[in-house]
Every structure is written in C-alpha cells, then in structure tokens.
Protein: S1/P1 Nuclease
Organism: Flagellimonas flava
Amino acid sequence: WGKTGHRVTGHIAQNHLTGKAKRAIKELLDGHSLAYVSTFADEIKADRAYSKYFAWHFVNYPLGMRYEDSEKSKYGDLITGIETCVRIVKDKNSKREDRVFYLKMLVHLIGDLHQPMHASRAEDKGGNDIQVQWFGEGSNLHRVWDKNLIESYGMTYTELATELDQVSRKERKKIQEGTIYDWVDESHVICAKLYDSAKVGDKLAYRYGYDYNDILFQQLQRGGLRLAKVLNDLFE
Ligand code: ADE
Ligand code: ZN
Ligand code: ZN
C-alpha cells in the first residue's frame, strides 16, 4: 500500500490491542502510534544501507499455487520478512534498537500482506508493468491498488479507519483466524482476480471504483484486525 493504506491498517489495529500489547508497543515506539510508524519501511527504501529489505515488501509465486508449495526467493520475501520480525521482536534478548526497528517493519509488512498486488506474480512485477490510465492519468495496476483507488475517496486515514472498523466481536474473531500462510494465499487468490480486472491500456475510472471498492475495504479491514492479532500474540 501507499501511505494511506498503511496508516489505515495501523489505526484499526491500535483499537484492538490488549492492554499488555499496548503498553509494550507504547514503550518501544516512544509513545508513537502504529499508524505513525507504519510507513517507516518505505521511508528507508531509498537508503542503500537498507536495500536487503526491499524483497520483504512482496512475494511472487505462480497464480493458482499455494505459498508453501512454491519456490522461495533467495532474497527473502514478505513471509520470511514477517517471520524474521516476529522472532526478533519476541526475543527479550534482542537489542532494544533491533526490537524497535523490526516492530516498525512488522507493522508495515502485515499491511503489505493484504495488498493483493503484493502477493502476486513475478512476470509483471506484481502489476507494475501493466500500464493503465486512472482518470486520464498514467498509472499501472499495482499503483491503482497501492494508492489510486484508496485516494479516490478523498478521506483521511482516520476517517477511513473509522468507516472500516464497524465489525462485531464475532466478525472480528472470524477475520483474525488463520496464519500468515492462509492470509498470503487469500491475498494471492484475490490478486489473480485483479489480473482479470484490467488489461494494458485500459482507462479506469468510477466504474472500477464501484466494482472493486468492497475488495479494497475488506483487505484494509483484514489487515488492521490481523495486525492487532499478530501483535497481541507476540506480546502475550
Ligand atoms: N517487484 C517485483 N514484484 C513486486 C510486487 N509483487 N510488488 C511490488 N514490487 C515488486
Ligand atoms: Zn506496492
Ligand atoms: Zn511496502
């Protein structure tokens, strides 16, 4: 996701933390919110010192296949990135500095896990090579899902999070079931559907928004509630 998607994810998650997780996170993040730190992993991208984390933002494997059955990238991917973050943050013997760094990375990566074009296929770099128009401006399928769609609402991240956070306890529990392996395959199935939603050169506008609004909102909501679940378990 772009900035708004990550902040929505962090803001929703913040509302569903246990007291214990909330205190631990507040201490590690010097009082900053999950929404605030959610974009950190993108802010360090341009710095060559952090280039090894680039591959952590996404995972590509053949459509129709499950992550666990796929050939893994030697550079790591979204799943190995999340696993590394969880291991380091959980370990009380990790340096505080590392726990802070990997916590911020984790908040971001759980967001990306729910952007369908980040659980994608390699041939077109998760839709980055599929050029389309968005309300007459040049874009691509990846970018449509990172930011064009979400920004078309003209809502702030707090407004969007409030809109998306209207779920019953029962619905929330249901959404929080499963593992990151289930969640990545779920995103990957949605991704396959999105490859049918637009072809190179398509002129996307209102119609696309109507048709895909539900998927966008569902993925943002899932990302937020599941981030809370991952953090609650981690600080248990
Ligand atoms: N580069 C290669 N594949 C990508 C993906 N799925 N998302 C973002 N960047 C990528
Ligand atoms: Zn992206
Ligand atoms: Zn990212």
The mean pLDDT is 97. The pocket of adenine (ligand 1) is lined by residues 57-58, 60, 117-118, 120, 125-126, 128 (CB under 6 Å). The longest strand covers residues 131-134.
